Amino acid sequence: MIKSYAKTYNALAVKNSSIKEVEVSVACEKAVELFVNNKHLVSILTTPNLLEELTLGFLVCEGVVKSPEDIISIDVEDSRIMAMIKEQGKPASSHQDMHIACDTIFERQVILDSVKYLESEVYHTTRGTHAACIVNKQGECKKRLIDVGRHNAIDKVVGCALYEHLDLCTHFLLSTGRQSASMVLKAVRAGIPLIVTNTAPFNSGIDAADQYNICLVCFAEPDYMLITTHPERIKI
Q1: Which of 215, 209, 210 has its CA nearest to residue 232?
Q2: 107: helix, coil or strand?
Q3: Are 117 and 174 in contact (CB under 8 A)?
Q4: Domain-by-domain residue ranges, the chain?
Q5: Which CATH architecture best describes the domain 106-235?
Q6: How far apart are CA 125 and CA 183, in angstroms?
Q7: Whole-angstrom Cα distance, residue 16 to residue 46?
């Protein structure tokens, strides 16, 4: 698994008076160009795998389309991704009608126990990757993806979940990334009611989660979590 995510380099390790030659594993990234209906949309620096899933997740999570059914095709050729979508009426990215309406309630212990899914051999080897997971109400990790980018990791894991037609309203999102509004809005557009991260929120992330009815849990550990918005979604 490490080989597909990292590359080995020779380096000099210097500590106090000690100098020695070492081999280090470094996370790999690649620039890909996404075109939608033959128009260039964005350049993405990403771990070079699962680019079709990345594209599906990106188009939904960024509001380019309202649902996977709006995507006609995704073709990947090396670093060039061509997506064809149905013509959108009202801009799909409009925030006016976004709201998580489902009433799923999650158990506290399930959330605390799920933090272990964020552990990654790739991260411990390279210190250069993020993880994102989709976990169901019973605490089963249904999808787990790793990427050099925290946003990409979410796009990929959501893309994989959508390909398998998971009901994301009954799942929650685990992420190693700091939660800004841009991260929270990805979950909103995907229809995920709960975000759990083992790190910090930004003020914009808390404000967005509060506005769009998402429960945002931060600094999660096996015995601790900080619920910043909508605690009614968790059975404490």
Answers
A1: 215
A2: strand
A3: yes
A4: 30-85, 106-235
A5: 3-Layer(aba) Sandwich (3.40)
A6: 25
A7: 35
